[in-house]
Amino acid sequence: MRPRLSRLLLAPALVALAGCTQFPEVNASVSDEMATRPYPKLVPIDTLRARIDGATLTPATTDAVEGRAEALRSRAARLKRRQAVDAQTRARMERGVR
Predict the structure, then answer these.
(1) Are 20 and 13 in contact (CB under 8 A)?
(2) Which of 7, 30, 52, 77 has the smallest count of CB within 10 Å of its CB?
(3) Is the whole-model pTM more than 0.85?
């Protein structure tokens, strides 16, 4: 057989083989307690959207986020000033690369 023809036959064979895969049993991952619980009640989408559309950012949360961002910027600046690898280790690493 020519190489091109064997490659053409290999692709469908691999797809067919993948179709024979044993799928995991989904129900086995659900605990007995969860299996016996009732389904959640369905609610209109507008009810769910009303919960999302409300203002979630307040001046207090904005200040908290800005404070956290400034603390992270400060930490990043300290980490940039610090040397991550000491001189002895750096020399050993450079010798290993050459």
Answers:
(1) no
(2) 52
(3) no
